[in-house]
Amino acid sequence: MSSPEQWTRPEPGAGPAATAAEPTPEQVIAGLRATTEGGTELTQLLNPEGERLASPRFDPYVADIDAEALRGLYKDMVLVRRADRESNAMQRQGQLGIWVPLLGQEAAQIGSGRALQPQDMAFPSYREHGVAYARGVDFRELLGIFRCSDHGGWDFKRHGFHPYTIVIGNQVLNATGYAMGQKFEGKVGDDDGEATIVYFGDGATSQGDVHEGFVWAAVYDAPVVFFCQNNQWAISEPTERQSRLPLYQRARGYGFEGIRVDGNDVLGCLAVSRWALEECRRGNGPVLIEAFTYRMDAHTTTDDPTRYRLSDELEVWKHKDPIERVRAHLARTGGADQAFFDDVQAEADRFAAELRDFCFNMPDPPPERIFSEVYADPSPQLDAQREEYLSYLSGFAEAGGH
Ligand SMILES: Cc1ncc(C[n+]2csc(CCOP(=O)(O)OP(=O)(O)O)c2C)c(N)n1
Ligand SMILES: [Mg+2]
């Protein structure tokens, strides 16, 4: 561990506890150090300089990732970042009600999202635009949610990607229940088995729902990967106020394995997620992954992080950028030339322009959409409600459209 002072409880009388309302200068420095280093237990396959590090345990899980596959991961991250930046700008222009930036978390989301198989199910919180993209959800669907004109009615089953959840930690219970169902229905036990992954933040680990999910998953051996993106902040609360231990170590108390991976290393996140999903598929779950990353932008567009964190922290993390290290690796190894990088950038710009065009001209969803994707099977009650509502609306048209 890089910074014992972060995790160690002070001796009585040795100074204020880490939970004091106002951190001391020593605590600020300790927190700063802790938030910029992942510690020796950090699994990393690609370091910030773009050098490939050997990992006897996890290399086999990315043995198929050649230069072409790595270029694919790079492109995914660039496109998702570009879409994120465009969406952030559109909120500033009044086109979206709010935006939740993913800046800095592209590797954690693309690495884990690309590790999933079609039969798997993912449960996001509200920042998982990269996972949505990896699951084939149209980015325009996400814009509808943040424009507040739509509830996000993609086909959850077809994409293996559940709706966004704003209530912190709640999706951990949903995912655990879903994974218990996979187990009860005999869908685990071999390489073709099913698994569930659920995304939540460092702050969410303090939520009761998350603990309950851990307990239920453990006692039922549920095939669920708990994927915690430790982006160091829960709005204005730093991670050291959530736990005395590195978060991944909590898994031990529940009786399953926990692992910390460099969340800015797409290769590391892919390898560790593939391993964890495979464990679950074979009936050896659950597993906790702590992806050690950093929220490079505000919590949401309603937040101003300059009020509560030092800019030095951001400057340090800029050197660990998840996209730049892949670019460096590809350039260094001859896996890509400048024309490739230029093409990806041009494609990302086109993608952003399409999103912008769509957003500015976004049609309101048809009124019947609110009734879609509610139940897996047809529901006579819901059908009756839909008919009643549509007939009510058509009354306005007959009365002159007002
Ligand atoms: C049950 C509940 N309590 C409080 C909130 C308000 N809230 C929204 S985001 C957030 C912080 C979450 O931080 P973290 O889990 O680290 O996720 P991150 O936003 O950093 O991805 C809080 C407290 C909420 N949405 N739900
Ligand atoms: Mg957080």
Automatic annotation (TrEMBL):
It holds the Pfam family E1_dh. Residues 10-25 have a biased composition (Low complexity). InterPro entries: Alpha-ketoacid_DH_E1_comp (IPR050771), DH_E1 (IPR001017), PdhA/BkdA (IPR017596), THDP-binding (IPR029061). GO terms for biological process: branched-chain amino acid catabolic process. Keywords: Oxidoreductase, Pyruvate, Thiamine pyrophosphate. GO terms for molecular function: magnesium ion binding; oxidoreductase activity, acting on the aldehyde or oxo group of donors, disulfide as acceptor. PANTHER family: 2-OXOISOVALERATE DEHYDROGENASE SUBUNIT ALPHA, MITOCHONDRIAL. This is Pyruvate dehydrogenase E1 component alpha subunit. It comes from Prauserella marina. The lineage of its organism: Bacteria, Bacillati, Actinomycetota, Actinomycetes, Pseudonocardiales.
